[in-house]
Amino acid sequence: MPDGWSARVPVLDDVAALVRLRGADQQPWTGSDRVDAEGIESEVAGEASWTRRQLVAVGEDDVPRCWITVHDRAAGRALVWGYFDREVAEVDRIALAFYRWAQEQAMAMAAMRGVTQTRLDESPFAGDERQERWLAEAGYAKRRTWLHMTRPVSTEDAGFVARTGVSVRPVGVHENGMPVAEDLQVVHRMLEESFEDHFNSYRESFPEFVQRLREDPGHRWDHWWIAYVDEDTPAGTVVCSVLAPDADGIEGSYVEYIGVNRHARGRGVAKSLLGTVFADAAERGRNRVDLEVDDDSPTNADQLYLSLGFECEYVTDSWFKDLSVGIESP
């Protein structure tokens, strides 16, 4: 670290500073500095912290000005999130030091899992040339582009009816409100099968999948739905979460995952699932539904979303670095 700076693990008292840091990081690209403080608290000192290793850079005032997180997403996958105060004179040196540290942590995670290879995955905002330069110097390469889309919700959405031949229902729950295991396993299987032909597909175990989604403070079991065709054949699923209130104090819904079995594509399953999400959001008094989609989706999902009223708010890119445990790949 540069003179006058040190790195340490973030603590609960840092949450307010980290909210400001992340808000300042996104504002030039999204037009808003609103950040879910509850989500950051979970990353620092809640369930989400259990699968993350992280550091903050502090000066003499001990206030975090840079923050890097390495998320042990699954075997062979480590998500990296770097947030840097661009007004810090030494920020270039801190960023490179933090990306070196992130690589060390990802390799340690891979070794702990007993896998021989892993992929680092960082997602800067498209057009952020400074962060792109840091990533390039750290050995990353740009591989994909993602569209972050939003759609307004109106009272008219509440009357949605699924296409003929398609039925959609929420996952079943027991008397105590907990979900039925069989339905959760169907959701997991549907998503695994739906994304088999995606460029970055990898298997995530059922326990990892459920734990990761539960880490989100916006997680709700009653935001998981399964679609069926031919009466009882599972054909697709959608998993949503609650978006924190916007500037007007109104919550939204976020589509974490939507997947349709390849054998059921073209039958209106995706539209039926999304229509269900719109209706649910309208009934709950929410004002928007957001999602993220691959700009090069093999199913042209972005075109479907545009046809349903979604618009692109901002864009991010995926930058990868592939590693072998103990030996960096060329």
Briefly characterize the structure.
Helix content is 31%, strand content 32%. By secondary structure, it is of the alpha+beta class. The radius of gyration is 21 Å and the shape is globular.
Describe this structure in words.
Pfam families: Acetyltransf_1 (PF00583). GO terms for molecular function: acyltransferase activity, transferring groups other than amino-acyl groups. It comes from Nocardioides mangrovicus. This protein has helices spanning 15-30, 37-45, 91-113, 129-137, 181-194, 206-214, 269-283, 301-307; strands spanning 6-8, 52-58, 64-74, 77-84, 117-122, 141-152, 166-170, 219-229, 233-243, 252-260, 288-294, 311-324, 327-328. The longest helix is centred in the N-terminal third of the chain and has 23 residues, at 91-113. The model has no long low-confidence stretch (mean pLDDT 92). It is α+β, with helices and mostly antiparallel strands and 330 residues long. The protein contains eight helices and 13 strands. Strand 12 (311-324) and strand 13 (327-328) form a beta hairpin. Strands 1, 2, 3, 4, 5, 6, 7, 8, 9, 10, 11, 12 and 13 form a 13-stranded mixed sheet that branches. It has two domains: 6-144 and 319-328, Aminopeptidase; 154-286, Gcn5-related N-acetyltransferase (GNAT) (Aminopeptidase), CATH 3.40.630.30. Helix 1 (15-30) crosses helix 2 (37-45). Helices cover 31% and strands 32% of the residues.
